[in-house]
Please model this.
Amino acid sequence: MKTGNRRVFVAGCGFAGLALARLLRERGWQVLAGTYGQASAEGLRAEGFEAFSCDLANLESLDAVAGLSECEAVVHSASSGRGGAEAYERVYFQGCKNLAAKAPGARLIFTSSTSVYAQTDGGWVSEESPAEPDRETGRWLRATEEFVVGVGGVSARLAGIYGPGRSVLLRKFLGGEAVLEGDGARWINQVHRDDIASGLAFLLERDVSGVFNLADNTPLTQKELYQGLSEKLGRPMPPYGPVDLGRKRGWTHKRVSNAKLRSMGWAPKYGSFFDALEQDPDLLAGASAASSEDGE
Model:
């Protein structure tokens, strides 16, 4: 698809958002890059982006984004900053409403989470499955999704995010903090940062709306994941421990299907976490806990 001179605002150029902004620029989009902090905006400008510091939850703050009203698309990929329900309401729900108000002609894409699926039976979930989270944070994600889809936009439900320098599970394993919860059979759903960028770009460049799961092809149980790491890295398996029911977005046990996106022609570069471990040399470098969640 021809994309030259088309304008997009990427609101939230963090770990995944920046990868998307770079990819879209490579594809010929004129990218406006949004971030909360002024220092981050300066860093984006140093990389050649038209960058703006703004607070998505503040309607007037978006006046600082020159050209926002002329954008063909807006991607909300900002983070809640590890905040609770109030932050989710402000950053996600109010943020999307404000973006829609300031760019009324633009397609709106929101990066949600597969945590909205509260299933605990270990079965497969698709976009047609019930999404009824039992935590207030998850309910704000659902409210935001409903708003976005209601204005003809896209809600991309991201599985647990990992990539170069960021993998909670890998960090815990290397640091000796990992625990096999219960019998270790809980399913872990993940997606690499680069596949998030390619999936969002895929959706952005097609005339679609609705909800789409963005995950890799291969959910792994905790035990499978840690066994694979143990064999590859020559380290002992983690000990067994109690199930952690205190997760901010709730404890779930399900396998997330990406079949809908794949049927449209998208495919992840990294079909599984172990593919990325073999093919992405930066994954092991500086693995750190950039998120409190370890896979949805």
